[in-house]
Amino acid sequence: MKLFFERLLEDETVIDFDSSSADFKLFKSEWGKLNAGILNDATAKVTINIVDAKFLLRLDLIAKLNLLCDRCLNEYEKSIEILQAFLYSEKKADKSKGDLEEESSEERFYIKGNPVELLDIFKEELLLELPQKNICSYDCKGICEKCGANLNLAECSCEKGEKFNPILIKKR
């Protein structure tokens, strides 16, 4: 969904997204191309406030993703909640005049051209929230290096003596 700042008439505009909206279906199909898990459900609320010729965009995004555990290869569901604020301005801030506050919690952006694509913001924020390593639980034991058994479900019957080294397979 494209957001045209010049078309905003009210001081506060609220845009709601849910799983049934056409924009969300487009977002879900684009998300599938990223290999970043399966997006099950998502809701988003975007609030835009106009303050002193600047646009404060607040994003409240809740999503449920199906991911594969990097240790045991089981699928698990992860809920992600994102609360983020962005400040858009039609003119670049002049640091020499003190236009940028040092301790601001919002990310600041210069509006280079309309429109701003909200679905791109959703995608970027979700990607930033994904863990670098997907682990289904803190105590996940993973799979056996030799037989591939899921050690979370049962102990395997492999010998516990030597460590498995795939490089040495051809030497045996």
Features:
172 residues, mainly beta, 2 domains, 5-stranded mixed sheet, two-stranded antiparallel ribbon, 13% helix, elongated
Low-pLDDT segments: 98-103
Major sheet: arrangement of strands? 2-3-4-5-6
Mean pLDDT: 76
Helix amount? 10-25%
What do you see in this structure?
The protein is mainly beta and 172 residues long. The protein folds into two domains: 2-138, no CATH class; 141-172, no CATH class. It is built from two helices and seven strands; from the N terminus they run ββαβββββα. The protein has helices spanning 22-32, 118-129; strands at 2-3, 12-17, 38-51, 54-68, 75-89, 107-110, 116-117. The strands form two sheets. The protein has a five-stranded mixed sheet, covered by helices on one side. The chain has a two-stranded antiparallel ribbon with strand order 1-7. Mean pLDDT is 76; it is low at 98-103.
In terms of topology, how is this protein built?
Layout: E1 2-3, E2 12-17, H1 22-32, E3 38-51, E4 54-68, E5 75-89, E6 107-110, E7 116-117, H2 118-129
Parallel strand pairs: 5-6
Antiparallel strand pairs: 1-7, 2-3, 3-4, 4-5
What does this entry show, briefly?
13% of the residues lie in helices and 34% in strands. With 172 residues, the chain is mostly beta strands. It has a 5-stranded mixed beta sheet with strand order 2-3-4-5-6, with helices on one face. The chain has a two-stranded antiparallel sheet with strand order 1-7.
